[in-house]
Amino acid sequence: MPDFSDFNPNTVDDFVEAMINEVKDLGQSWWSTNKEIVPGYLRSLAEASLQTQAALASGLIDKDAADQAVRMQQAAFRQTVRFMKYMTLALSQRIVDTVFSLIGWALFNRTGVNFFPELVSPE
Amino acid sequence: MKSLKIFILAPLLGACSTFDWFAPPYDAELDKSVMESHKAVSEITACIDMGLCADVASFEQREQIYTKAVAGLKTARLRAETWEPPRRSATGAEAKTLLIEMIDGCQAQLMELGERHRKNGVPQNAGFTQPVDTACDQALRAVQALKQG
Fold first, then answer.
1. A90 shares contact with chain B (CB less than 8 Å)
2. What is the phi/psi pair of residue A115, to 5°?
3. A59-113, pLDDT tens digit by residue?
């Protein structure tokens, strides 16, 4: 979370501009991180699938072992879908936290009252 | 006047926001448990990737590592279960379920790998390690998703 400890807007426009900038930055940084991660998982699972095929074809593993490996790969792929869903919810929470951190600091800096101690930690 | 409205409305909005969680808050203890398990899982999958766990005898030498990894995941699951979304937030409850499923998913993959290792050994380059690494990496990333900084 960026440092909002000096945030003290005077107008709605100042407030909204800060919120939009923070949410935009958060979204961009989130996307740039996650767009690398999920393809990485898919690449890893594709590699696993090819290894299992080659190992079965060469006789390194038998049919039962190959069956177990592909079921594990299937389970990991299913989990990847759940992971993407979870990370979307986590991003939503981060946006809420970021916006209310801004609001909390603005309130604290203006009034001295801390409405969001979980997000605003004055020294 | 506009700024005054904001300062009146903000606490009200804030009160609403604290009741509607999209995901469980970051929990350092949960992170620690999953991180320890993740390290142990990496030790096991590295052993397989290097061809050092292909025989049954190698299981006994790594049994404690498996145990450590599973223990950390069991602790993490219990910890994750304790968070209750305020006011029965539907999205918070969904996120909690997903988080627990990812911890369970890591454990299930590891148990399956361990069972094969114990009975047959795990050959190198046969596609067994990537699903375990993937599932456990996702569990760790999910637990750390709301970590600040």
1. yes
2. -85, -20
3. 999 999 999 999 999 999 999 999 999 999 999 998 988 999 999 999 999 999 9
A114 touches chain B (CB under 8 A): no
Q: What are phi and psi of A71, to 5 degrees?
A: -70, -40
Compare all CA atoms of chain B with the CA of A89 and give the residue at the minimum distance.
B22
- Entry pTM: 0.86
Q: Token match 């989130």: residue?
A: A30
Give the closest of B22, B91, B135 to A76, CB-based.
B135
Could you give the count of Cα atoms lying within 13 Å of B102 in the half-sphere of its Cβ? Answer: 30
d(CA A89, CA A70): 29
pLDDT digits (tens, 9 = 90+) for B66-117: 999 999 999 999 999 999 887 778 899 999 999 999 999 999 999 999 999 9
* Unique residue bearing structure tokens 């804030």: B14
CB pairs under 8 A between A and B: 156
**Rounded to an integer, what distance in angstroms lies between the CA atom of residue A63 and that of residue A86?**
35
Nearest to A11 among B3, B10, B133 (CB): B3
